Amino acid sequence: MTDEVPDQDARRRIPRTDALLALPALVEAATRHGERVVRAAVTEAQQQARDGRITPEEVPAAAEAALPRRPTSLRAVINATGVVVHTNIGRAPLSAGAIEALSLAAGYVDVEYDAETGARARRGRGTIAALLDAVPAAGGALVVNNGAAALVLATTALAAGREVVVSRGEMVEIGDGFRLPDLIESTGARLREVGTTNRTTLADYRAAVGPETGCILKVHPSNFRVEGFTSSVGVAELSTLGRPVVMDIGSGLLHPDPLLPVEPDATTALTDGATIVTASGDKLLGGPQAGIILGEAATVERLRRHPLARALRVDKLTLAALEATVRGPRTPVTAYLHADPAEARRRTEALAAALGRKVVDVVGRVGGGGAPGLELPGCAVELPERCAAGLRRGDPCVVARVERGRCLVDLRCVPPEQDDRLEAAIRAALADGI
Description:
The protein is 37% helix and 17% strand. It is built from 18 helices and 14 strands. The chain has a 7-stranded mixed sheet with strand order 2-10-9-8-7-3-6, sandwiched between helices. The chain has a 5-stranded mixed sheet with strand order 1-13-14-12-11. A hairpin with a 2-residue loop joins β4 (173-175) and β5 (178-179). α6 (125-134) runs parallel beside α14 and α17 packs across α18. The termini are far apart.
């Protein structure tokens, strides 16, 4: 018989929760992620030790490793698709000025406060002033939470319980199954469709306009084209019919752009006689998600005073980012649309040479429902199709285009300072055996 003492149960050496939470690294993590998240990571690490998957001494490191790397589940993405306004990855990337404005607006700000008098002030007055400075043809401006909200507010205020006259060729689906007829009818207005899918004339509108007409709606079919035997009626003609004309330009272009000759813009629509113009802030304008309403001052004020406007109003972050976008220099969206072809090819060839790959010609797109059919000639690095999955799963996450059995990496929307990270991501994807 021996007097050997059995080894102490290793689980007794597992650090206590309070001791782990007091570690400097976990205290700092709690300021970023919150104590609940850190405590959950600690509990998981302790359980791993109890199960024998790690040693008690490895618990602190395991707890740190289990913490989220970012304060949000959203991941930053490098857009190598060649699609400038890509809805699935956040549409417009914000300018440096807009990002700075977001940071400033994250704290207490005078969003509805007049520091001179100490009294309440008009909400978003700086953003409204910026929009009116940018579009002198507008007498008034209002910002709501997205483009669909702008259209809903306009038709509700002008035509609830009455008719909205609209061409059949403009009864569009705006994405994710949301259709214009359903959107308008949800406001309590009745749709009065005129013309046919491919042809609508001024006489069609004139025959439909009557005492029950609340407004005439003109919608830019921004995500498709109808070609061939077609005709439509412009804002200038519609404005002669004696009813408010609401023009939904969609993409948020404030002024004409020679690169986008058929894309409607707010200035032209208002000059032609539109009463109200509605648009999105996060497409061609290059700002945050917002619905922009521009138009005749009294009508915009009517919309602003409508009870629905309160439910659709934007927060201080959107107001700050939109003001900085409108007042600032050209946005990333504008820069990518007007990218220098020679510089883009130089960067692409340098990347391809470093990787030992081939450069191919490609066609980029505006995206986000803007300028359908417009081709943006460019070039891309050609990779095996399997690389697309590796690029998406890597760090950084890179979204490229898969086309005809190839993975195409287009640098049009990749800032030059990201080239080294992109090269490293591609090397990792090429080395991945999947």
